[in-house]
Amino acid sequence: MNRPTEFVKEARGGCLVYFVVSPGARSTEIGGIDAWRGAVQVRVAAEPKDGAANAELVEFLSRKLSVPVSAITVVKGSKTHRKSVFVPLSTDDVKSKLGLE
User: Fold this and answer.
1) Is pLDDT larger for residue 39 or for residue 101?
2) Cα 79 to the chain's mean position, in Å?
3) How many CB atoms lie within 10 A of CB 84?
4) Three-state SS string across the chain, please?
5) What angle is formed at CA 18 by the lines to CA 89 and CA 83, rounded to 5 degrees?
6) Is 24 in a helix, a strand, or coil?
7) Are the beta carbons of 33 and 99 closer than 8 angstroms?
8) What is the pLDDT of residues 50-79, one digit of tens each?
9) Is 61 helix (H, G, I), strand (E, B) or coil?
10) CA nearest 84: which of 74, 94, 93?
11) Rg of the chain on CA atoms, in Å
12) Domain ranges in the chain?
């Protein structure tokens, strides 16, 4: 399997951020960086049912990154815990706003 080496990568018009999502948490929060997977660990306070965990992740990112929900897209992994998400910000902005510099 091809794994990203960095949790955020430049893309046209923004960047892709790689996540490992753990649903069913008490609250939605960043758990740190999983260096082996090249992804940001996020615990979400929603169950993985009917897209609820994806919606919670997108709403959380919208608040943390100060961008509209409509500007964030789950590009890959909508039905798995490993996700690639497009956000219309630079890699430096994403790292800074998520507190992962």
Assistant:
1) 39
2) 14
3) 18
4) CCCCCCCEEEECCEEEEEEEEEECCCCCEEEEEECCCCEEEEEECCCCCCCHHHHHHHHHHHHHHCCCHHHCEEEECCCCCEEEEEECCCHHHHHHHCCCC
5) 115
6) coil
7) no
8) 999 999 999 999 999 999 999 999 999 999
9) helix
10) 74
11) 12
12) 8-90
Percent of the chain with pLDDT over 90: 86
Q: Which two tokens stand for residue 2?
A: 């091809």
Q: Which amino acid is at 19?
A: F
From the centroid of its chain, how far is CA 75? 10
Q: For domain 8-90, which CATH number applies: 2.70.40.10, 3.40.50.2300, 3.40.50.300, 3.30.1200.10? A: 3.30.1200.10
